[in-house]
Amino acid sequence: VEIKGSVDATSDTDRNATIQVPAEANKNVALDFGTAPKTSAEKPLKITEATSSGSGSGSGTTPAEDSKNTITVTMPAATNAVAAETIETPQSTVELTSPSETPSNTTKYTTITATTANNTLVVGKNVEIGTIYVKGGNIRLKNGSKVGSINNNTGGKIIVYRELGATLTNNPTDSNIEVIDTDLDANLETILAKGGSYILPAELKLTKPLDVYGEVTFDLNGNIVTYAD
After folding, report:
1. DSSP symbols for 30-98
2. Which of 61, 79, 91, 111 has an alpha carbon 20 to 30 Å from 139's alpha carbon atom?
3. What is the dihedral of CA 131, 132, 133, 139, to 10 degrees?
4. What is the pLDDT of residue 187?
5. Secondary structure element (H or E) that encloses residue 181, with its range
6. How far is CA 141 from CA 57, 167, 179, in A?
7. 154-206: per-residue pLDDT in tens?
8. 93 closest CA partner among 54, 137, 58
């Protein structure tokens, strides 16, 4: 879905701009904003489930189920950050992406407040976030992403998967936030766990063994896998 018009969540006529996305099994949705929305801390852009009854949304509990689908949100790279975005999708994985190819030109958010399925909120390459407030689900920081701090508002434990090349400026001191450093990208980890085919896009340097739980076809694609030294 390409959103060409500007969205102003702070205006009197569009006070709480909300985009509702159905949580349909195996039906992914991509939202591509041509212009970054105007928001404020009091009036964020909201992305919610059209079919959600509100369970998990701000309830202080982590959703128990894996996601039905993935919602990809692409915002343009700009000097000014999107002030606030609230994600209430307890049945979906949400991935924040940037069209930028260079680390010097990033898509910026000041705050993200997120309720997602267990399969996580994914912060993509060249996406920069000041603070993430987690109300449900887990977090994955992909290679090339940058996050200032993560706050756990779930009432339980969350896991932050940090890929090589991802930056988390303030390591959490909360014992209920576990940071796991991983050499693998999200797609490969899913395939290793459940089975499938994977084409290696670049050389892979492992600091721990690959644990394979499913039937996996692993195509090196001309690349080299090395372990430790």
Report:
1. EEEESSPPB--SSS-EEEEETT--STTSSSSS---SPPSEEEEEE----SSPEEEEEEEETTEEEEEE-
2. 79
3. -150
4. 72
5. strand 177-182
6. 22, 8, 10
7. 989 999 989 878 999 998 999 999 998 877 776 787 788 878 888 887 778 88
8. 137
Amino acid at 198: Y
Amino acid making up residue 73: V
The dihedral of CA 59, 62, 65, 67: what is its sign?
A: positive
Amino acid 62 reads: T
Amino acid 28 reads: N
pTM here is 0.80
Strand partners, 21: 49
Return the amino acid letter for 225: V
Cβ–Cβ under 8 Å, residues 180 and 163:
no
- Distance CA(77)–CA(81), nearest Å, equals 9
d(CA 140, CA 121): 6
List, for residues 94-107, the tens digit of each pLDDT value.
999 999 989 889 99
